[in-house]
Amino acid sequence: MGIQLVVSLLAATIMQRMAPHCSFARWLLCNGSLFRFKHPSEGELCALAGKQVAKPNRRDRRQNGESKPLTVPKDIDLHLEKAPVRVIDALVLRFFLEYQWLIDFAVYASGVFIFTECYCSIVDASKEVNIGAIWCVLTVLFGLKTLHTLMSHYFGSEEGGERSVCLAFGFLSLLVAMLVLVVREDYLEFGLEPGFNSLFNNLETFVKQQGYADWSPGYQADCEAWPGCSVCLHWSSLAFPGLRLAQTHLDAVQMNSDRPLIQILLHMSFMSPIIVLILWVKPIARDFLANAPMGKTSVTIVSSSAFDSMRLGIIVALCVLRLAMTRYHLQAYLNLAQKWVEQMKREAGRIAAIDIQKKVTRVFCYLTVVTLQYLTATYLFVVFFFFCIGDFSWNPGAEQTPGVTPALVLPTAAPAASVVLDDDEEGVDYMEEDIQATVSRLSESFTALRSVLTPLFFRGFFAFLTWWVAACQVLSSLFGIYFHQYLMQS
């Protein structure tokens, strides 16, 4: 048991034991900074409406068999009461347990990742499996599972409008992804082409070593199109988070109209995916910084080897900024209850009291879903996993290898030494030999897998995935801005 595995088991134990007592997810929602709006009771609505309340009489009850709902005028002077979000209120919310598990697991995964990076920088752990990367990819998988669970509820809607939006975004993403994949590496430097070349060359060498001399990778073009097909379902799950982000961004900016610094940070957080897109456009990012035009000469601002580390650092900083803006977006969402009441006051007619209570309560009941959509749409752990597998370095001056694995040479297990044993020790010796043979076979399998799946391949694949997550957020959030600014108002 290496030190990485010990720290991982310790982190898992602490997470399990401390979850009922200390939870970052609960603190994020229930630290007293978020305020919800209580729904008015029927007595309060009756007092505000005065004599205009339409109360059911006995004759209506005998005719209809049931009492008519209490109705009040829409233009009553209704002001909702504020109350801080407490733990006892949040525990009854739907998807709260899923939200708490995902956020807490992400926090502990960050701690394990930071420890493994410090450990690998001090000790030569090139032959060890980076457990921090495993925690990161598990966080990504849990986040995708949560998004797909939320999307399944949209598909189960009776009206079918949400289902149509998800399908439309999914087919549009497939079209755009196929167009992006045909762009040359001179413009979008994902590294997919050299990564797949490295993968198939090593795979061909590995298969020939197994005795299949006539095998050749004849489906390389189909495999290169696979990343574009895989993002289709992913963007369908990011459609409604982008639309929700656009609405909360507009409301948060309006809510902080007297705080220009917060408005600047909100705009930077909203525009952060566009910055990520630009970082992978080679003529704008790498070529400009490596050969910046200065009159008739060119100046190297950042070396090409340091650009990858700088790019990852910028993405992490933008993710931290988005996490810091979480409270403003969530409070802007909770203010939708009061915003709906103000809009109701400008309308004519009457409305049932139960409808007012439902509208106000529904906003708070949807809080954990909005929080999950906001936080899981980030790409921080994709970057972490991209960094670990791709052999990047946080040090801008560090020399980075291209990640190409040399010729595959599978290790062979050392023969066990023959020793004459007694009858009592013979069974124990056979068990030890079986364990050693199993360990040897597992070591050979992992070594062969690491030789086939080179860091160069992981660099290209996860670079495309990180860029595409940012592209999904940009397209869906910009469409959300257009929808809420123009279509809803018209």
From TrEMBL:
GO terms for cellular component: membrane. The keyword Transmembrane helix applies. It is found in: Membrane. Keywords: Glycoprotein, Membrane, Signal, Transmembrane, Transmembrane helix. The keyword Membrane applies. It comes from the Eukaryota. The chain crosses the membrane at residues 101-122, 129-147, 167-183, 264-281, 301-321, 363-387, 461-483. Belongs to the TMEM161 family. This is Transmembrane protein 161A. It comes from Neogobius melanostomus (round goby).
